[in-house]
YXWGXW repeat-containing protein (Variovorax gossypii), 124 residues
Amino acid sequence: MKKLALALSVGAASLLSVGALTVPTAVQAQPVITIQTPPPPPRYERVPPPRRGYVWAPGHYEWRGGRHVWIGGGWVRARPGYAYRPPEWRQDGGRWVYNSGRWDRDGDGVPNRYDRRPNNPYRN
């Protein structure tokens, strides 16, 4: 009986430690992904009817395991006062750089953590 209790407690502790490492938080750092291979053309996705309080995050390609992997779209809870910017690949000097989806407060496309004046009402 003691062996079973010990095995269960060790198993539970290991599951909790793994869960603690993989639980997403709102302030996780997003690694910059730069590759030489361009992403394939986006796949067609049927966008479902609007849902109150949610924003549609379109499907996109991510770089996983040395190849492009399609991630299907889904609903993201809306944040009042913010605009959702979907994930995108941009070409920069012959390389492809991945920008993950993010929320932008002033609509200029620059993430607020990099924007010197994120709430400038006179910005174009």
In short: The two ends are 70 Å apart (CA to CA). Residues 32-124 form one domain.
